[in-house]
Design a protein that fits this description.
The protein has about 675 residues and is an alpha/beta fold. About 60% of the residues lie in helices and about 10% in strands. The chain is built from 27 helices and eight strands. Helix 1 (about 1-10) crosses helix 14 (about 270-300), helix 7 (about 125-160) crosses helix 17 (about 370-390) and helix 9 packs across helix 16 (about 320-345).
Length: about 675
């Protein structure tokens, strides 16, 4: 029953994008003077694209490469870096957490797998390349979160013009789309579960209606249209049309756009629900019958190809179907918006994305999240695209360019997962990679023609997010390198605390910083300028691990730093663990752990007498300043891009939800 419910909900979010493509695909075909054989060839291309890319690749292969229920390119990357020792500066370093070690398969690997692993581990540039490709794919998906709503809503609203008064112009359609998109983005705060429950009936009605119309058109216009599933119609199509047929592949590819959201949204639902119940028995057959029905209609009415989807709808049910199609377009938008939230959430703990507010909207499903900042950024970009292009053709071109590159990256990363991690036969791995990289490469060459016709928008959006992520990552790398070289030693800390230069006041001080090993240099700065610290001092590091969840017994690790009253606390969290240290509970838990480590009765007494109002929380904040000798690029990246992002992202204090009345923020400037 739970699987059926999740499948029901997933229809309302995961498959919305794939389900609304019939409104655009055949309309975008570039073949002129189309013949019956051309139409059958196009339908054969659509059928095999859905079968190979959506059904076989994603549903039955890629979904198995998830990271403990989480999907998307970052989940694949997280899975790989736990099994491969990444050491390049750009890559996320592997960790030695017991939680991660227990997730690593201990099964015997073949010689080829061992060689592949050693090859990647031995070449730093290969690790950086894998990381960069993952970042690029992530930026493409986030940009898709703006392109999908703009494309889906605009293309659906075109139906108003084709069956309405000429008084309704394209400008009217654009402003209708803007109003509806604002409402959609405002609705995101409700959470995936509530949204999917609202949208699921729409999608079930949408698929049922498309199947019914498809069967009706097949019976009425051309019953033998299903014979076109034979691949020889594809050969005839290319022989008859040559280059024009190849260019038309860009339109055919729109049938499978949406499967990248299927994988990225996996954490919101259940693999079995997505794989078997929702896709195999609902979405896939519904899409095949819908396209078959449109093809059958066009065989008898070839002149209607410019408005294929809406023209094939019987007149008596046109307006009800238009309303359903519009609602389904909103669902398609939801699929990529949810995927963007998931990807940003996964990338923040890895240090690739500035801190934004991540709100968990479900107590049952950890992957269901909402980010207000990302939501409104996508809304502004989406509205700008709608107003700027005022039509669906250019946006559809940009959309296809985005998705094909995400698919190619997913194919490469899934191949590495199958080769290095999973016990997959080498012949099957090579077969998977060869078939899909060739197939997607052919689609990619066709879609390159779309770049001057609107596809450049996707490149611009991706470049915007990629610049932000790389700038943030570069600044974080420089900051950690500076701190690693200048961190305090235990001897230096003991000399300052015991030598009488620092006055010890009653109470307990929690000093939050992000150095895992060693004492941060800002501690030296703090002690030198205040000349005092509480009797109990705890250096707390919140460490985000690229795993789904850290086991409870490993989340809090406390150790004595040698001097009486000085401790280090390591708080380890996965990207699905709630990051909070609010109020009394976390403080009490840390104090209880410290009491277990206390060496003297005097120290235990101090811990026991510490009152609630004697707790002080100190946050370290650093500002980077690049030395002019580093060159103009480093100076621009650090002094302008990184510092701008740092200033406008959420501070550590807000992410940790620490009580502001007990918090002191200490800042310093790093000259790097």
């Amino acid at each position: 029953m739970q699987t059926l419910m999740l499948a029901y909900q997933s229809l309302g979010v995961v498959y919305g994008d794939l389900g609304t493509s019939p409104t655009q695909v055949l309309t975008s075909i570039t073949v002129k003077n189309v013949t019956d054989e051309d139409l059958l060839g196009i339908f054969s291309l659509i059928f095999w694209s859905l079968t190979l890319l959506a059904q076989i690749k994603y549903v039955f292969v890629v979904l198995h490469a998830n990271d403990h229920g989480e999907g998307g390119t970052f989940a694949l990357y997280s899975n790989l870096r736990r099994h491969i020792n990444f050491q390049s500066e750009l890559a996320v370093k592997s960790t030695s957490s017991e939680s991660e070690a227990n997730m690593i398969s201990q099964s015997r690997r073949s010689t080829l797998r061992s060689k592949t692993k050693r090859l990647i581990e031995g070449i730093s540039s290969a690790q950086s390349l894998v990381t960069f490709v993952v970042l690029l794919s992530t930026c493409l998906v986030i940009g898709d979160g703006a392109l999908t709503p703009a494309t889906g809503v605009l293309s659906t609203l075109q139906g108003v013009q084709s069956h309405s008064s000429s008084k309704i112009t394209q400008d009217h359609v654009v402003w209708m789309a803007v109003v509806l998109l604002i409402a959609l983005f405002a609705f995101q705060r409700c959470g995936t579960s509530k949204i999917s429950l609202c949208f699921s009936p729409v999608m079930i009605l949408w698929y049922a209606a498309n199947v019914s119309i498809g069967i009706y058109n097949i019976i009425r216009y051309q019953p033998y249209v299903l014979e076109a599933i034979s691949p020889h119609y594809i050969v005839k199509f290319f022989l008859n049309n040559g280059k024009i047929g190849w260019v038309s592949l860009g339109a055919v590819f729109l049938t499978v756009t949406g499967v990248e959201a299927l994988f990225a949204d996996l954490g919101h639902f259940n693999k079995r629900a997505v794989q078997v119940v929702a896709f195999s028995f609902v979405v896939y057959p519904a899409m095949v019958l819908s396209y078959a029905g449109q093809t059958a209609y066009l065989i008898k009415n070839p002149s209607q190809i410019v408005n294929a989807y809406y023209s094939s709808i019987p007149v008596p049910i046109y307006w009800p179907m238009f309303v359903i199609s519009y609602l389904a377009a909103l669902v398609s938008s939801q699929s990529m918006i949810s995927a963007s939230f998931s990807i940003v959430k996964q990338s923040i703990p890895l240090g690739f994305f500035p801190r934004v507010n991540i709100i968990h909207t479900s107590s049952k499903h950890e992957g269901q999240v909402y980010s207000p900042e990302i939501n409104y950024i996508l809304m502004i970009l989406c509205i700008g695209l709608v107003i700027g292009f005022k039509g669906g053709v250019e946006l559809a071109n940009a959309y296809g360019v985005v998705v094909i590159w995400v698919m190619i990256v997913t194919t490469c990363l899934t191949t590495l997962v199958m080769l290095v991690i999973r016990e997959t036969n080498v012949i099957l791995v090579l077969g998977f990679f060869t078939i899909f990289i060739v197939l997607e490469g052919i689609f990619m060459t066709s879609l390159l023609n779309k770049i001057p016709q609107g596809g450049g928008v996707s490149i611009a959006l991706s470049a915007f997010f990629l610049t932000m992520m790389l700038s943030w990552r570069y600044g974080r790398i420089k900051k950690r390198k500076y701190e690693a070289e200048r961190k305090m030693s235990l001897i230096e800390l003991d000399e300052m605390l015991v030598g009488g230069r620092v006055y010890r006041t009653p109470g307990i001080c929690f000093f939050y910083y992000d150095i895992v090993n060693g004492i941060p240099p800002i501690m030296r700065h703090y002690l030198q300028h205040t000349n005092s610290v509480q009797e109990i001092m705890v250096i707390v590091t919140v460490r985000s691990l690229p795993v789904k969840s850290v086991r409870p017994e490993e989340r809090l690790i406390v150790g004595n730093l040698g001097n009486e009253g000085t401790y280090r606390c390591l708080l380890q969290l996965g990207y699905n663990d709630l990051v909070t240290s609010e109020g009394k509970d976390c403080v009490a838990l840390i104090v209880a752990k410290i009491r277990e480590q206390a060496n003297t009765d005097n120290e235990i007494q101090k811990l026991g007498s510490t009152a609630e109002n004697e707790v002080v929380l100190v946050i370290g904040r650093t500002i980077l300043n690049s030395n002019p000798n580093n060159g103009w690029l480093s100076c621009f990246t650090i002094n302008y891009l990184y510092r701008f992002i740092q200033k406008n992202c959420r501070a550590v204090i807000s992410v940790l939800e620490m009580p502001p009345e007990r918090t002191l923020q200490v800042g310093t400037v790093y000259e790097i």
